Amino acid sequence: MLFDTHAHLNAEQFNEDLEEVISRAQEAGVTNMVVVGFDRPTITRAMELAEGYEFIYACVGWHPVDAIDMTDEDLLWIEELAAHPKVVAIGEMGLDYHWDKSPKDIQKEVFRKQIQLAKKVKLPIVIHNREATQDIVEILKEEGAAEVGGIMHCFSGSAETAKECVNMNFYISLGGPVTFKNAKKPKEVAAEIPIDKLLIETDCPYLAPHPFRGKRNEPSYVKLVAEQIAEIKGLTYEEVAEATTQNAKKCFAIN
């Protein structure tokens, strides 16, 4: 049993062969996945997928790169969707200082609003962080995000930062990069963070694990992430699959 906690099956890269992709995931042992929506079109599609498949859940929020486009109506819509039984988290939200489409102050404002919303609707949050670790940690502390906790998605920071996030009630989610030969930080995080605080994900169609690096990622490849973590931690693959699945169900309050 594997739980892909962060997939974008709502991406256009899956328009042609979605059924085959889902079948391959099930054959690989993936029993659950969360499809993440981060703007109007992707949220709409995430909801369709969650309603269409028993084992797919939705996470709804607004991406920091597009923070400048978010309106009060969008935030209200996300709040309404939060009541849906298949919506298990708010996000992905956070800060992205790599792209400069949305000014930093607007990103921060939209981030804070979504944390406040998550606390209101009592759902965990999924954090996107790119080149903004210090500001993200500060905002999570200032907004009392530990109240709902959540996931540091596709974590790329240091083991020290990961421990700080765990202390704020966050799970650390690792994806394809942990399998890259030169990826020192994710391997250190996998080694140092207790298995009961780790999650696995693909972030498909992006960040495919070795040996598929550079190709389209898909949920079946989450097995490679679990295998790598097992190797690093000296655990069996089955132990990692079981633990990360139970962690995800606990995080998302899925029975």
How is this structure best described in words?
The chain is an alpha/beta fold and 255 residues long. It has helices spanning 18-27, 40-52, 72-81, 104-121, 133-142, 159-166, 184-192, 222-233, 237-252; strands at 2-7, 30-37, 56-60, 87-96, 125-130, 150-152, 170-174, 198-200. α8 packs across α9 (237-252). The longest helix is centred in the middle third of the chain and has 18 residues, at 104-121.
Give a brief description.
The chain has 255 residues and is an alpha/beta fold. Helix content is 42%, strand content 18%. The protein contains 9 helices and 8 strands.
Enumerate the strands of the largest sheet in spatial order, edge to edge or round the barrel: 1-2-3-4-5-6-7-8
Separation of termini? 14 Å
Number of separate strands: 8
The description of the largest β-sheet is:
8 strands, parallel
Helical percentage:
40-55%
Structural class based on helices, strands and sheet pairing:
alpha/beta
What is the arithmetic mean of pLDDT?
98
Q: How many helical stretches?
A: 9
> Which of globular, elongated, flat, extended, rod-shaped describes the shape?
globular
Strand content: 15-25%
Low-confidence stretches: none
The helix/strand series, from N terminus to C terminus, equals: EHEHEHEHEHEHEHEHH
Radius of gyration: 17 Å
